[in-house]
Write a structure and sequence with these properties.
With about 130 residues, this protein is α+β, with helices and mostly antiparallel strands. The protein has three helices and eight strands, in the order βααββββββαβ. The strands form two sheets. It has a four-stranded antiparallel β-sheet. The radius of gyration is 17 Å and the shape is elongated. It starts with 11 loop residues before the first strand and ends with a strand. The model has no long low-confidence stretch (mean pLDDT about 85).
């Protein structure tokens, strides 16, 4: 799992603008709280900043399904590649989740606030040989 610099054409791309702009917005709000409220708001600003950092660290705002696996983009210019052989994708009624068995963790594959293309994602994953549950 690392960065991918050269990839083939993306077979499916999902993104959520809310997840792209929410973490930087939370950090900006924490900064504004410290500037205008001073020392009284340091604890609250730290909590808001920690939540923004956590959301940016755990939730990708964009993903692309390619022949080799899934590429994830996170806020603050972080990328991650999940190889096709290392993951199982669970596509159910809610958001799709890429499960990484070796780490016992799942990464949500969010395609907007309202998941409308769930069936299309499932068919693309099955067509390209991903393990889907």
């Amino acid at each position: 799992m690392g960065s991918v610099y050269v990839v083939r054409e993306a077979r499916f791309v999902g993104e959520c603008a809310f997840l792209r702009y929410w973490p930087p917005g939370m950090l900006a709000f924490a900064f504004v709280m410290i500037v205008f409220a001073g020392n009284r708001a340091v604890l609250y600003a730290a909590a808001v900043a920690a939540c923004g950092w956590l959301v940016a660290r755990l939730l990708p705002w964009r993903f692309a399904v390619v022949d080799e696996g899934i590429i994830l983009w996170f806020p603050f210019a972080r990328q991650r590649f999940l190889a096709k052989d290392d993951i199982t994708v669970r596509v159910g009624q809610g958001s799709a989740v890429a499960l990484i068995p070796s780490r016992r963790v799942g990464v949500p594959l969010t395609d907007g606030l309202v998941e409308r293309r769930r069936l299309m994602l499932r068919s693309v994953l099955l067509e390209h040989g991903f393990r889907v549950s």
